[in-house]
Description:
Structural class: alpha/beta
Number of strands: 10
Strand content: 15-25%
Number of helices: 9
Number of domains: 2
CATH class of the largest domain: Alpha Beta
Shape: globular
Bound molecules: adenosine-5'-triphosphate
Strand order of the largest sheet: 6-7-8-3-9-10
Amino acid sequence: MILEVNNITKRFGGLVAVDDVTFSVREREIFGIIGPNGAGKTTLFNVITGFYKPDKGRIIFQGNDITGKKPNEIAKMGLLRTWQIVRPFLGMKVIDNLLVPMYVKKGIIGGITEREAIERANEILEFVGLSHRRDFLAEALPQGERKRLEIARALASEPKLLMLDEPAGGLTPTEMDEVMDVVRKLRESGITVVVIEHNMRVVMGICERIMALNFGRKIAEGTPEEIGRNEEVIKAYLGERFHVGG
Ligand SMILES: Nc1ncnc2c1ncn2[C@@H]1O[C@H](COP(=O)(O)OP(=O)(O)OP(=O)(O)O)[C@@H](O)[C@H]1O
């Protein structure tokens, strides 16, 4: 297991946003987290990536206890996230959006020449299908391409595990297909992916296993087929129209 999340609880005052949640993610898996609005998905992401400290529980990443570590320490270990609201450096060129995180990371582990950095940035742009946008300002990109730029920026920091917060949110069906292709390629290139996503076509289409949350609690975990026919999930979230079992 690359990530083990054990009995995580996170409270905001009297509200239990994440309630004793346990799950683990296998290496090179695409693992989905679903649940209605307010179920605790984003809070769980924030706890795992160090933006919030949990009230209870442990998080183990590649055998190391990362509970309570700072986001930049966790990122340096190879656990990166993207945000629901994309936030590239809009006034910067697409390529520079990748060079900045690269210099930040490589500066720490011993330097990289400009030529190496540019080469690597070009590879990443190719990977996410944004080579043609290399010298555009990020603000000129449509939403679907911004989402892929966000993934590209995370790739510049060489993650082992990438946590994607609603990568298909606000996208057209064609843009969604392009993001789904990129996520599958991530896995093929050896990166483990944990993804929060509301769009069921996307979740069911890319995830090998899915966990469902409701009111902060884990209510189910399984393959897309198992989740699609789980009565509690259907009641909480999916609605009859997504009933797979008939
Ligand atoms: N910083 C905070 N302070 C107080 N309450 C918060 C905070 N962040 C989240 N909450 C509350 O915690 C609960 C879980 O919220 P969270 O954003 O994790 O849900 P979610 O499943 O990600 O929802 P969505 O699908 O709408 O993004 C909600 O009731 C929310 O109002």
